[in-house]
Amino acid sequence: VSILGPKELLVNRTEQVSLLANGVPSECLTVSTQLEYRWIETTGQLDLSSIPEIVYTTRSLVIPPFVLEPIGSGSDLNTYNFTVETFAVDSPNKAAYASVTVKVRRSPVFAYLATEDRLMT
């Protein structure tokens, strides 16, 4: 199994994070070619099963904006490690694993100035 894309991602807190696993079934005739996937976050900062919007049992993991948190201040990064476990449906004890690191930074701050449509004196 592998996770498509870079091994390390740098994202803003406001971004959606999408991870896609690519599993290859065994060529053994005695093992099912249908694969199942299970994602976990291994630093202990995020329990995927506690967030109803996140489906963690498919080949893709989509994390909505504002779920991953930055730490500290300024340019400090918070590191999350996501691991996907892939196994044949009839052999869940024989799994393959792949991991990716997601580093979260604070989102930039933007200021928008509203202007009046009339001139005030």
What would you say this structure looks like, in words?
The radius of gyration is 20 Å and the shape is elongated. It has strands at 2-3, 8-12, 17-22, 35-41, 60-63, 78-88, 91-105. The protein is mainly β and 121 residues long. The strands form 2 sheets. A 4-stranded mixed beta sheet has the order 2-7-6-4, with no helix packed on it.
Q: How do the strands and helices of this protein lay out in sequence?
A:
Elements: E1 2-3, E2 8-12, E3 17-22, E4 35-41, E5 60-63, E6 78-88, E7 91-105
Parallel strand pairs: 2-7
Antiparallel strand pairs: 1-3, 3-5, 4-6, 6-7
Biggest beta sheet summary:
4 strands, mixed
The number of distinct β-strands equals 7
Radius of gyration using CA atoms only: 20 Å
Strand order of the largest sheet: 2-7-6-4
Q: What's the total helix number?
A: 0
| Percentage of residues in DSSP E strands | 35-45%
Structural class: mainly beta
Q: Which spans have pLDDT < 50 for at least 5 consecutive residues?
A: none
Mean pLDDT: 90
Helix amount, in percent?
Answer: under 10%
- What best-fitting shape do the alpha-carbon axes yield? elongated
